[in-house]
Amino acid sequence: MVDQDLIENDEPLLVAKSLSKSYGRIAACRDVSFALYPGEVLAIVGESGSGKSTLLQLLSGQLAASGGQVSYRMRDGVTRDFATLGEAERRFLFRTDWGFVHQDPAQGLRMAVSAGANVGERLMAVGWNHYGRIRDTASDWLTRVEIDIARIDDAPRTYSGGMRQRLQIARNLVTEPRLVFMDEPTGGLDVSVQARLLDLVRSLVAELHLAVIIVTHDLAVARLLSHRVMVMKGGRVIETGLTDQVLDDPREPYTQLLVSSILPP
Amino acid sequence: MTAMIDVTDASKTFTMHLQGGIELPVVSGVTFQVDPGECVVLSGPSGAGKSSILKMIFGNYRCDSGRIGIRHCGASVDLAIAEPRQVLNIRRATIGYVSQFLRAVPRVATVDVVAEPLIVNGLARAEAQARAGELLHRLNIPERLWRLPPATFSGGEQQRVNIARGFISDLPILLLDEPTASLDATNRAVVVELVAEKKRQGVAMVAIVHDDEIRHLIADRVVDVTSFAAAA
User: Fold this and answer.
1) Which residues of B touch A10 (CB under 8 A)?
2) Cβ(B87)–Cβ(B62) under 8 Å?
């Protein structure tokens, strides 16, 4: 079993090489390199302005890098430089193989159309056209993210913050992506709602063997969800390693400050 | 016989940057081996570095120098320099760790908390839950609690859930950090029994136990941690 996994996971899914981004004279992201493997959850932590959101945008192809490159292993097993992909291949990534969960669900959802349509839309974009099958799959996903099926025809603007976020997750996962980017997914939520969402994300990630890159300033979120963390400060990765190692035995002054700033439970 | 754990000259110092960069030497020159079927107990007063050594063997604390040799899938791997992915693989297939406290995941039922290590290694859920049930039963956790998350349990109950989770898998190395600290006599006896069974299965164990009686019952060898005291 383990050997099997080792073989399957031997090739990274995404590789970043010397990624940089500057805005004029300000370097938002400097020389970031790492490899992400299938099923691996990587947390990018750091305070506001550390460059973590810029990095996420560079990695997910939403922002062009000033230097360096991002390569991705496509479903045919060939690893390709994102910058050289054609329009159709990019669309495939955005619509199918990747998911992006925004902090504000309003950015990732269409607030005025029904929840069912929000989920079904991603399927139609990849060519599904049988209404019954789309609706069944959408209902199935609403159930998986613990949204009452009776609410399927309601628009997300009538939903609570926690429900919206769960709907956004369903919309992203319905096409069975291999990689999901998450930008502070629990950011705007009450603590009790956060715990439920984290628990849900944790089990879905394990079940679907998803690779995830999650940006968070909350170290508790990183601890609960991620295998590995990268700590960012001033656009640079200053410390990286196994999540429990970095959080229990932080080396860098800044990481020690972050860890010591957690309020005791 | 080939040792399962082979620690050579490992050392660890904490540098406290927020306290003006003072250095806290924890241990140095840590050297010992553990063979299959053997239970080594680390002894020494509080603060001598016993837990730190256990955490270094689990890859939770980093080593400043030295080697943490672990026999993993037939080969010897130095955990001190292993890549994060490799450490995770080693934890999944080779090293189990029973910490003092259960890190409870909010909504997961007790029986699933215990069964998880088996499910991760590919066992069917029903079978894993059945084995979890057996172990919970042995550790005297009443069946009516199995479907509840352990977060609201008493300290002793949580520790028993934690022990069940640690002992359920068939990993060849187990690290035990005070597994009997908050247990009554009956349950301490169960843990002694579980340790004896693991020995018969050839599992290599490193344990921290403060209770002299338990130490006599489970230790094949005692390693005195004060000899690894780091020069301040």
Assistant:
1) none
2) no
> Nearest CB to B84: which of A9, A241, A252?
A241
Are B223 and B27 a contacting pair, CB within 8 Å?
A: no
The residue type of A149 is: I
CA atoms B57, B62, B67, B72: torsion sign: positive
DSSP of B133-148: HHHHHHTT--GGGTTS
AA letter at A3? D
| pLDDT (mean) for A90-108 | 93
* Alpha carbon distance A160, B220 (integer Å): 59
Write down how long chain B is: 232
Q: Is it the case that residue B102 has pLDDT exceeding 90? A: no
Report d(CA B92, CA B120) in Å as an integer.
8
One-letter amino acid of A164: R
CA atoms within 13 A on the CB side of A53: 10
- B126 Cβ partners below 8 Å, 6+ apart? none
Contact between residue B45 and residue B229 where contact means Cβ atoms under 8 Å apart: no
Q: How many helices (H) and strands (E) does chain A have?
A: 11, 10
Q: Do A245 and B62 touch (CB under 8 A)?
A: yes
Q: What is the Cα–Cα distance from A262 to B214, expressed in whole angstroms? A: 36
Chosen from B53, B60, B79, B90 to mutate, greatest number of chain A CBs within 10 A = B60
Tens digits of residue pLDDT in A12-23: 999 999 999 998
Interface test with A, best of B64, B105, B119 (most A CBs within 10 A): B105
Residues of chain B in contact with residue A37, where contact means CB-CB under 8 angstroms, are: 85
Closest Cβ–Cβ partner in A2, A196, A228 for B93 = A2
Please state the ipTM of this predicted complex.
0.90
A70 beta partners: A16
Q: How many CB pairs below 8 A link A and B? A: 60
Q: Measured between alpha carbons, how far is B119 from B132 in angstroms, rounded to an integer?
A: 11
Q: Which helix (H) or strand (E) holds B67?
A: strand B65-72
pLDDT, mean of residues B49-68: 96
CA distance A176 to A170: 10
φ/ψ of residue B152, rounded to 5: -95, 0
Residue A7 confidence (pLDDT): 43
Distance CA A229, CA A243 (A): 5
First to last CA, chain B: 37
Average pLDDT over residues B25-51: 95
Residue A111 to chain B, least CA–CA distance (Å): 29
| Residue B85, min C-alpha distance to chain A (Å) | 8
Separation in Å, CA of B122 to nearest CA in chain A: 7
Q: Terminal CA-to-CA distance of chain A, rounded, Å?
A: 37
Closest CA to B171 of B131, B203, B124, B193: B203
